[in-house]
Specification:
6-stranded parallel sheet; 6 helices; 35% helix
Amino acid sequence: MNRTAILVDGAFFLARYRKVYGERDAGDARAVAKTVFGMALEHLKAVDRPREQLYRIFFYDCPPLEKSFAKPISGDSIDFGRTGAAAFRRELHDQLRRQRKMALRLGRLAERGEWQLKRNAYQQLRDGSLHWDDLGDEHFEPDMRQTQVDMKIGIDIAALTYKKLVDQIILVAGDADFIPAAKLARYEGIDFILDPMWQGIAPDLHEHIDGLQSVCPRPF
């Protein structure tokens, strides 16, 4: 029986979720987890495959930051483990673990204990709508990087391919980091589909996939 594996880059999915599911509460972890599963079923419908042909859904993310830092301007302390964002992430991971056919893959959140200027604040400084003397704590964010997530995605694609567990892989992602793994899968005969959730992709990415397919609502 032909089987499909669906791999979801969690950070990318959550960023796009706020844009394509604007009518839904992005802070409702249970609803977000159900949306992940619902998207998987929509992909199976799009290729005319019954639900039982879903091999597994892999969701890749990082645990929330659990440290305290001094804010860059005021010097006040903030415990990131007690923020609403951290509580949401923990609840989302718990809800995902409860979903059928779901495998949660967690990387690491690497932080250097430093702050960086937010992108929109940087743009405001450039266009003159914000001045250096007006900068406050709200214009900064901790300097954090996800690690091991891309590696786990690549390893899973290779394992699914070489073990011949599936004949189709659908990747929900938006960058080009997956290209080496996609080329490997395609070389071994796997049908490789990219779902960028209606985000535009570089033209040269088309040569490394077998199809482009977004099943979520198209944002206006």
